[in-house]
Amino acid sequence: MTHTIAVIRGDGIGPEISDASLRVLDALDAGLNYDFVDAGMTALEKHGELLPAATMAAIGKHRVALKGPLTTPVGEGFTSINVELRKRFDLYANLRPAITFPNTKARYDNIDLITVRENTEGAYGSEGQTLSPDGQQAQSLIRVSRRGSERIVRYAYDMARRLGRKKVTIVHKANIMKTTSGLFLSVARDIAKDYPEITSNEMIVDNCCMQLVMRPEQFDVIVTTNLFGDIISDLCAGLVGGLGLAPGANIGTDAAIFEAVHGSAPDIAGKGIANPCALLLGAGQMLEHIGMPDKATRLRQAIRDTMAARDRVTPDLGGTGSTSTFADAIIERVKNSP
């Protein structure tokens, strides 16, 4: 059985890590076909727009996309291409796993948690931004809906049940933001009752950040609103060695986009030293999404074994290898795995 996915190779280091990732996916014999489309600066240069209609149509048709990092040009177009994609396809659930891998700059060796972030509303949406004529006062609207809260919290609990996770932490600021964060917390409390086999607890966001630094092993699944999730997930990435190991899944009812959450790193573009792991781990999330969990497990194990051996890894991981040699080492292990 074959499955066609849209592939956005991206800007900066995007093409390098995308090509490496596709080689690894091919070695997994996942039966994937690729429909290459453009977005970001590459699209602007080739087609005169940041998100061409053909790209949007391909994502809508295939319902799954693997996306390299994009550059949003300053002073024109969308505030963020990634945010625009989430809005266009209503990709309401953002999944950011943080897992400890060997031979990294990880602060801990026992982290395995997932941040489930509402992806379409809240303070991060920056709706209704205004600046007073005298430049002395700025404001922005925070919009949280019952529907948005319900679907992200239920997604988190359903995912926890499916993956055998034992605990969900509901993160909020309802002690101060009594309407917006209060609505989210109230909805989450109601939904938690439908999952008695899962331990639920609540944590104010500032305490959550402190607890993540002090004792991250207490967390399993975190569910929270958009801006808090953005901050917490980067904090978690720092605990396990940085954004070079941070994948992200953006999932909606009709489409899903999988990515590396780091930027396009133009300063090292073309040097062949970019670490492809974040996008590869995003590809692992994609494999699970399309019903290939065994191949996702093989991929993650091959990455882990390669990093443990420091076999041809990139300089950020203490090696002297390249993007391409790192992929070669992972491919060898993928092919030799059961």
TrEMBL record:
Residues 4-330 form the Isopropylmalate dehydrogenase-like domain. Keywords: Oxidoreductase. GO terms for biological process: isocitrate metabolic process; tricarboxylic acid cycle. GO terms for molecular function: isocitrate dehydrogenase (NAD+) activity; magnesium ion binding; NAD binding. Pfam families: Iso_dh (PF00180). It comes from the Bacteria. PANTHER family: DECARBOXYLATING DEHYDROGENASES-ISOCITRATE, ISOPROPYLMALATE, TARTRATE, ISOCITRATE DEHYDROGENASE [NAD] SUBUNIT ALPHA, MITOCHONDRIAL. NCBIfam families: PRK08997.1. Belongs to the isocitrate and isopropylmalate dehydrogenases family. This is NAD-dependent isocitrate dehydrogenase. It comes from Ahniella affigens. The lineage of its organism: Bacteria, Pseudomonadati, Pseudomonadota, Gammaproteobacteria, Lysobacterales.
